[in-house]
């Protein structure tokens, strides 16, 4: 009895742990002023370099944005961080973690990136990024956006306990800097008032950055305004359901996802026949016969060249006469209809013996 109680308790604990570590992808938006067409641009600087195309579009248009940086990016881009710091009226620096580790505890990897795995590792990632920003700028960040924008529920609680707000988004511009420029530009221009856009500013060698810059200029030319997260009171929704693609949103159409999906293959039912070649089975007993499988298409019958005994065609391509048939092949000859071996040539008749006169 004790054994079953222990097993039940273990299963209950596993279930509770899986529920506590379920993953979410938070959504973030804001309520614009009446009649105002405003969006919040947010950029991730995970690691790597700095995309001057996006930076120039922001500077030339006097466009506000919130930049999420990692400690890794800060260490490799101290000069570019100084550029952002030089315009605090335009740029808000926030926390993207220490080493771009997803704050997830119930999966080893998220989109190919190794996850934190434990709450202790999640806290180290968040606090490490915060310390790096505070040391570089003298300001403690308020917002945190995790790598891949995925969070397990226990990690979300730990982040809140550290007094950080989780920065979701409502419109994905570049899907992790993976989309071509034209698609990215269209997605940026599909923004609605109150959207929080996510894109990447650390991939200068990918075409997606050119699309981001073009989309910003198009919105600016269309009379849109831009806000930082600190300028508005964002609306947080941490109950966002999981999705398939990285940083993908379901509320924005995508030209690349317009291809219809193939219908799923229906599951086989117990009564369905297996449409496959039959397995090879032993020959039937002497008093039992088997009919050949019917042909796929009915063909007009043609008279046989000569009467011939009915034969049974088996999957192994061996051909036998029906039981009781009188036909027997000559030694070395093939059975009628057998294609695996050619007919043996008939032996030449022996030469006639010379006649000797007595």
CATH superfamily of the domain at 19-254: Glycoside hydrolase/deacetylase
Which spans have pLDDT < 50 for at least 5 consecutive residues? 10-20, 242-292, 307-322, 335-341
**Fraction of helical residues:** 25-40%
Rg to the nearest angstrom?
A: 37 Å
Largest sheet: 6 strands, parallel
Helix/strand-derived class? alpha/beta
The DSSP helix count reads 8
Strand content: 15-25%
The sequence of SSEs as H and E is: HEEEHEHHEEEHEEHEEHEHEEEE
Overall number of strands: 16
What's the N-to-C terminus distance? Answer: 113 Å
The CATH first-level class of the domain at 19-254 comes to Alpha Beta
Question: Mean pLDDT, nearest integer?
Answer: 76
Query: What fold name goes in the CATH topology slot of the domain at 19-254?
Result: TIM Barrel
CATH architecture of the domain at 19-254: Alpha-Beta Barrel
Shape descriptor reads globular
Description:
With 358 residues, this protein is of the alpha/beta class. It has helices spanning 2-20, 52-60, 71-76, 78-85, 119-137, 153-161, 181-189, 208-221, and strands at 23-24, 27-30, 38-45, 65-69, 91-95, 109-110, 113-114, 143-144, 151-152, 165-166, 171-172, 196-200, 225-227, 234-237, 311-313, 319-321. The strands form 6 sheets. Strands 3, 4, 5, 11, 12 and 13 form a 6-stranded parallel β-sheet that branches. A two-stranded antiparallel sheet has the order 1-9. Strands 2-14 form a two-stranded antiparallel sheet. Helix 7 (181-189) links the parallel strand 11 and strand 12. It is globular. The chain starts with a helix and ends in a 37-residue tail after the last strand. Residues 10-20, 242-292, 307-322 and 335-341 have low confidence and may be disordered.
């Amino acid at each position: 009895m004790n054994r079953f109680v222990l097993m039940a308790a273990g299963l209950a604990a596993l279930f509770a742990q899986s529920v506590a570590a379920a993953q979410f992808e938070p959504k973030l938006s804001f309520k614009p002023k009446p009649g105002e067409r405003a969006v919040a641009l947010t950029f991730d600087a995970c690691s790597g370099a700095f995309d001057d195309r996006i930076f120039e579009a922001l500077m030339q248009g006097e466009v506000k944005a919130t930049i999420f940086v990692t400690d890794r990016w800060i260490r490799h881009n101290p000069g570019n961080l100084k550029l952002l710091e030089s315009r605090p009226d335009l740029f808000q620096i926030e926390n993207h973690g220490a080493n771009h580790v997803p704050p997830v505890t119930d999966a080893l990897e998220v989109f190919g990136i190794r996850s934190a795995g434990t709450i202790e590792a999640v806290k180290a990632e968040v606090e490490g990024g915060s310390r790096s920003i505070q040391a570089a700028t003298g300001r403690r960040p308020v917002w945190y956006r995790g790598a891949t924008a995925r969070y397990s529920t226990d990690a979300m609680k730990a982040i809140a306990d550290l007094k950080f707000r989780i920065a979701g988004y409502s419109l994905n511009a570049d899907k992790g800097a993976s989309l071509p420029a034209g698609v990215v530009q269209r997605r940026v221009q599909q923004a609605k008032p109150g959207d929080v856009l996510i894109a990447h500013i650390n991939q200068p060698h990918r075409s997606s950055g050119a699309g981001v810059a073009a989309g910003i200029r198009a919105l600016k030319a269309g009379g849109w305004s831009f806000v930082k997260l600190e300028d508005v009171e964002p609306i947080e929704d941490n109950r966002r359901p999981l999705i398939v693609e990285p940083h993908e949103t379901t509320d924005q159409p995508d030209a690349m996802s317009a291809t219809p999906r193939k219908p799923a293959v229906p599951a086989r039912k117990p009564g369905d026949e297996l449409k496959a070649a039959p397995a090879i089975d032993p020959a039937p007993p002497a008093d039992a016969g088997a009919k050949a499988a019917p042909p796929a298409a009915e063909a007009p019958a043609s008279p046989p060249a000569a009467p011939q005994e009915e034969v049974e065609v088996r999957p192994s391509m061996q051909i036998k006469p029906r039981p009781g048939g009188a036909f027997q092949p000559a030694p070395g000859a093939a059975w009628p209809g057998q294609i695996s071996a050619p007919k043996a040539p008939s032996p030449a008749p022996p030469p006639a013996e010379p006649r000797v006169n007595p």
